[in-house]
Amino acid sequence: MDEARDNFLMRFVEWVRKGYPTGVPRQDYVALLGLLRRKLTNDEILRVADHLVAQAGGDSNTITRQDIETMIHGSVLQAASDDDVARVSAHLAAGGWPLADPPPPTN
């Protein structure tokens, strides 16, 4: 992965952390990952997800990497409602999203 793309992924993780300072609630992951899917490859989404899972802690609402992989490979990400997307977009905006479109993926 090139440096510009890697920097974008790390900025995205920071935007999410600022928008969701106590962690992303389980009900927001579908819309969040759906938004990501528009800009990132599946491998990039999993890299971001690894950071978010690590931040989440481990309570009963914590999403796992396996949960995220299932969402990516299924049709779940298509199910985000307009209200879900608006709610998640507001959280991301609070964290500074978007600064700019990411550079295109190299794969």
Explain this structure to me?
This is DUF3349 domain-containing protein. InterPro entries: DUF3349 (IPR021784). With 107 residues, this protein is mainly α. It has one domain (3-94): Orthogonal Bundle (DNA polymerase, domain 1). It is 59% helix and 0% strand. The chain is built from five helices and no strands. The model has no long low-confidence stretch (mean pLDDT 76).
Structure summarized in a few sentences:
With 107 residues, the protein is mostly helical. It contains five helices and no strands.
Descriptive terms for the model:
107 residues; mainly alpha; DNA polymerase, domain 1; 5 helices; 59% helix
Provide the residue-averaged pLDDT. 76
Q: Tell me what portion of residues adopts beta-strand conformation.
A: under 5%
- Residue windows where pLDDT falls under 50 for at least 5 positions: none
CATH architecture: Orthogonal Bundle
Rg calculated over all Cα atoms: 13 Å
User: What number of domains?
Assistant: 1
Major β-sheet annotation: none
Strand/helix succession: HHHHH
First-last Cα distance: 9 Å
Number of helices: 5
Shape field: globular
Helix content: 55-70%
Structural class: mainly alpha
Number of beta strands: 0
Write down the CATH topology: DNA polymerase, domain 1
Q: In the CATH hierarchy, what is the class? A: Mainly Alpha
- What is the H level of CATH, i.e. the homologous superfamily? DUF3349, helical bundle
